[in-house]
TrEMBL record:
Signal peptide: none annotated. This is Formamidopyrimidine-DNA glycosylase. It comes from the Bacteria. Keywords: DNA damage, DNA repair, DNA-binding, Endonuclease, Glycosidase, Hydrolase, Lyase, Metal-binding, Multifunctional enzyme, Nuclease, Zinc, Zinc-finger. Its cofactor is Zn(2+). It holds the Pfam family zf-FPG_IleRS. One of its GO terms (molecular function) is 8-oxo-7,8-dihydroguanine DNA N-glycosylase activity.
Length: 272
């Protein structure tokens, strides 16, 4: 599961390891990528030095010293692993970026998920993505302005990547719980107090998840003790039938916008 916190942790780990390092090879293990696109991609990347790594929406962006940006879109089920020495043959790997004898391998990508762009091209490309929930410019009033136009349920809106980026099923449920609002509540029913709770919950849940290692299931390197540390802190996600740590009620599966969600009906209010 890769949502904003997990990607933010990836970004930090990749920057720590590879900022200042030279890319010595880029290997696409899977078939399916257009040969010309592959040659161009490798030509843009190999021999460059990574200045730093940034997260933009659901992407990792490597800033290269030739002015290009190497983008890796990380879908929900994808993951990455960093290692060193000879890489064992691995049929599940999609692409490996090598830095001398160190490398990062990405799993679960599609050919269109890895590409290079100019700085200007990247800005254009990012316009289709929703606002970043941790962007300082996203004030409470801007958040309300953006969300209140939607006629959907709270959960559907949080998962709408054109509206806001980086929130998937795990954090949508956790944010709704922290805000004490049922995920199936219609946005149009929220009052000022509920909007503020939702806004605060979004920031605090995501930041808390980042600081506790996120909810990722796969370690990013051998001996990685940080990744997944937030899983034991999840309050409702996949805790159906267990007791609510806040009120002692029972966490249940509910339906929000035709999809399943997890919530505690005793302490999350269905605002109508
Ligand atoms: Zn509860």
């Amino acid at each position: 599961m890769q949502e904003l916190p997990e990607l933010d942790i990836y970004r930090a780990m990749l920057a720590e390891r590879f900022a200042g390092a030279q890319i010595t090879a880029l290997t696409i293990h899977k078939k399916g990528m257009d040969e010309a696109a592959k040659t161009e991609l490798i030509g843009h990347v190999v021999g460059t030095t990574v200045w730093f790594v940034e997260r933009r929406a659901q992407h990792l962006v490597f800033h290269l010293d030739n002015g290009k940006r190497l983008l890796v879109y990380v879908p929900y089920e994808a993951y990455a692993f960093c290692g060193s020495g000879e890489k064992k043959k691995d049929s599940k790997a999609f692409a490996t970026i090598s830095f001398g004898d160190r490398y990062v391998t990405f799993y679960g990508l599609m050919p269109e998920h890895i590409l290079t762009m100019s700085v200007k091209g990247l800005e254009e490309y990012m316009k289709v993505n929703g606002v970043d929930p941790l962007d300082k410019r996203l004030t409470l009033s801007r958040f309300v302005e953006r969300f209140s136009k939607k006629r959907s349920t709270l959960r559907t809106a949080l998962l709408d990547t054109g509206l806001i980026s980086g929130i998937g099923p795990v954090y949508a449920d956790e944010i709704a719980f922290a805000a004490k609002i049922r995920p199936e509540t219609k946005l149009q029913s929220l009052n000022a107090d509920a909007w503020e709770r939702l806004y605060q919950a979004m920031g605090s849940v995501l930041r808390d998840a980042i600081s506790h290692g996120g909810a990722g299931e796969k370690p990013m390197f051998e001996g990685d003790l940080l990744t997944g540390g937030y899983r034991e802190r999840l309050q409702v996600y996949k805790r159906e039938g267990q007791s609510c740590m806040r009120c002692g009620g029972t966490v249940q599966k509910v339906t929000a916008g035709n999809r399943k969600a997890f919530a505690c009906p005793s302490c999350q209010e269905l605002i109508e």
